[in-house]
Design goal:
By secondary structure, this protein is an alpha/beta fold. The protein has twelve helices and 18 strands. Its EC number is 5.3.1.23.
Length: about 350
């Protein structure tokens, strides 16, 4: 992705070949600040405090976290401790465990002296694989947008929730990869961006990256989607996912389920973009089996923003003494999903659909 003409990924290795650099997403949309990660603790904090977020980017950061840990202690005990520290950072996105397991598989059979180099190499591969998978799923998703355009011969309106764009991955995004591919091929489109309270990933991150890329978009309050769908103002929804079960249940940012219900009631297709590391083949029933992150109630009771003179401010919106609860994710049952857009193509959200694309997992 380019920012003002300069190509960026969301995570990369610094020139010293050891330090990992990331874009601090808590400073967006107002400032582009690069942070250096120099230790296991830096990597863990960057995930927990959401300097990086989005399932694939959490996985990529955890992979580099293992490499940073190996520099300090590449013994079996050191790697095991790093695995546990990183795994404890956030509970819902399965890409975190996937990446940690990949790193362990690449390292544990090697002599200790070879582990640091191998760790940096596997982490870099995980980043490249994520970028390639998202680019491929973007092509498959763009074909869907192109079909809508061919049928309707006008601007295609796409609704998305949270940020499942370039900033949530190493490159391209998941829900937004089809948008970028379609836009770049000249298909006229417009994106409705759910603000995504309480952390506003839509308003601050999705709008930021669509704006950088020049994609027409409009930020809407989270409860607007149903109204737009009733009035024919949404042609399709595309969202990302933090974990999709082998049955096709989709766990994503809180509020996704309500959009899927509104889409079903209004015959609006509801698609999910996901690279295969986001599929949890060990889980069948998403509602009962996926752990849902609960974050601080303060994210709900307060709103963060910037004053016109650039000062960061935090404003309380609830009365003192009113309790608040902050569930981070919900599960959209497979029956509400029109299709899963993966790097291998588009499939039905069902065990048969997923096994058809990934027969090696059958
Ligand atoms: O809490 P976040 O910001 O990490 O949640 C991100 C999402 O819910 C995304 O939609 C999901 O990770 C898909 S990312 C391509």
């Amino acid at each position: 992705m380019k920012i003002n003409g300069t190509p960026y990924r969301t995570i990369w290795l610094a020139k010293d070949g050891k330090t990992v650099e990331i874009i601090d997403q808590t400073r967006l949309p107002h400032e582009l600040v690069v942070m250096a990660l120099r230790s296991l603790d830096d990597a863990a904090r960057s995930i927990k405090d959401m300097w990086v977020r989005g399932a694939p980017l959490i996985g990529a950061t955890a992979a580099y976290g293992m490499a940073l840990a190996a520099v300090g202690d590449a013994s079996d005990a050191g790697l095991e401790r790093a695995y546990q520290v990183l795994h404890a950072t956030r509970p819902t996105a399965i890409n975190l465990k996937w990446a940690l397991d990949e790193m362990m598989a690449a390292l544990k059979t090697l002599p200790v002296g070879e582990r640091i180099g191998a760790a940096y190499q596997r982490a870099a591969e995980i980043c490249d694989e994520d970028s390639a998978q998202n680019a491929a799923l973007g092509e498959h998703g763009a074909a869907i947008i192109a079909e809508h355009h061919k049928a309707k011969r006008r601007t295609i309106n796409i609704l998305t929730h949270c940020n499942a764009g370039w900033l949530a991955t190493v490159d391209w995004g998941t829900a937004l990869a089809p948008v970028y591919k379609a836009f770049d091929s000249g298909i006229p489109l417009h994106v409705w961006v759910d603000e995504t309270r309480p952390r506003n990933q839509g308003a601050s991150l999705t709008a930021r990256e669509l704006n950088w890329h020049g994609v027409p978009h409009t930020v809407i309050a989270d409860n607007t989607g149903g109204h737009l769908m009733q009035h024919g103002m949404v042609d399709l929804c595309i969202v990302g996912t933090d974990r999709t079960t082998r049955n096709g249940d989709v766990c994503n940012k809180i509020g996704t389920y309500l959009k899927a219900l509104a889409a079903r009631d209004n015959d609006v297709p509801f698609y999910v973009g996901l690279p295969s590391p986001t599929i949890d083949w060990t889980v069948a029933d998403g509602v009962r089996e996926i752990p849902i992150e609960e974050r601080s109630a303060r994210e709900q009771t307060h709103i963060f923003g910037r004053t016109e003179d650039g000062q960061v401010c935090e404003v309380q919106v609830t009365p003192d003494g009113s309790p608040a609860v902050n569930y981070g994710f919900d599960v959209t049952p497979a029956r509400l999903v029109t299709g899963l857009i993966t790097e291998r193509g588009v499939c039905e959200a069902s065990p048969e659909g997923l096994r058809g694309l990934f027969p090696e997992r059958a």
